[in-house]
Amino acid sequence: MLILFDLDGTLIDSTEAILESFHNSFTIHNFPAQEDEKIESLIGYPLDEMYRALGVDEDVVWDFVATYKEHYRKISTQKTELLENAREAIIEASKFATLAIVTTKTGRYSKVLMEYFELMHYFEVLVGREDVEHPKPHKEPIITALTRLNKDDNDIWMIGDTKMDLISATNAGVNSIGVLSGYGTKESLEPYTDIIVKDSLSAVKYLKSRKKLHT
């Protein structure tokens, strides 16, 4: 079995770091302040798409992204925490499956975060934003992870908290589980997966019991 985990809202909560980095970029570039709720509603999309949705002009979008990343890099480990049960989920999943991370975050910073939490060694592959041309909901991030894993296994699952994770799974032809620990609501996830659970540990327990039934 192969299990692909999203990061934000699935394994980690970096909302504080994300919001602070956005507000810092607005200040530096003299852009009007935005409400936290509006920013949070876009988490899961690539940064450039988030800035466009917030009204940043195309010709300066990447300046905002660069400013964001520089600030986020400085504060991410101090202002990010593991979600409840995430550590247990990863450790339990590693006992019966091969694990990977598929995220729209910058892969370099994501690896630093997971190493900070002493969990990166449980994952064979981490695919971040810079590793693909087309981020989720496109299939490319998942296909890239599967190519790098190079495992002959048809029992593949994507676990994520937003519809982008679930649509990406569908586009890639793999199974998916939605979790309610992050930014997506049950109503927003229901059209895209048949399985919605509380959090990553609940998802892992479901997959463990499922594997037992099929062995």
Question: What report would you give on this structure?
Answer:
- The chain contains 10 helices and 8 strands.
- It has a 6-stranded parallel beta sheet, sandwiched between helices. It has a two-stranded antiparallel sheet with strand order 2-3.
- With 215 residues, the chain is α/β, with parallel strands linked by helices.
- The chain folds into 2 domains: 2-13 and 80-213, HAD superfamily/HAD-like (Rossmann fold, 3-Layer(aba) Sandwich); 15-75, Orthogonal Bundle (DNA polymerase, domain 1).
- Helix content is 46%, strand content 13%.
- The longest helix is centred in the N-terminal third of the chain and has 15 residues, at 61-75.
- Helix 3 (47-53) crosses helix 4 (61-75).
- The model has no long low-confidence stretch (mean pLDDT 96).
What's a quick, concise take on this entry?
The protein is of the alpha/beta class and 215 residues long. The chain contains 10 helices and 8 strands.
Task: Identify the notable features of this structure and list them briefly.
single chain; 215 residues; alpha/beta; Rossmann fold; DNA polymerase, domain 1; 2 domains; 8 strands; globular
Secondary structure topology:
Blueprint: E1 2-5, E2 12-13, H1 15-28, H2 36-40, H3 47-53, H4 61-75, E3 81-82, H5 86-94, E4 98-102, H6 107-116, E5 125-127, H7 140-149, E6 156-160, H8 163-172, E7 175-179, H9 186-189, E8 196-197, H10 200-213
Parallel strand pairs: 1-4, 1-6, 4-5, 6-7, 7-8
Antiparallel strand pairs: 2-3
Helix pairs in contact: 1-4, 3-4, 5-10
Average pLDDT confidence is 96
Number of domains: 2
For the biggest β-sheet, the strand order reads: 5-4-1-6-7-8
CATH topology of the largest domain: Rossmann fold
Specify Rg, calculated over alpha carbons. 17 Å
Terminal residue distance? 12 Å
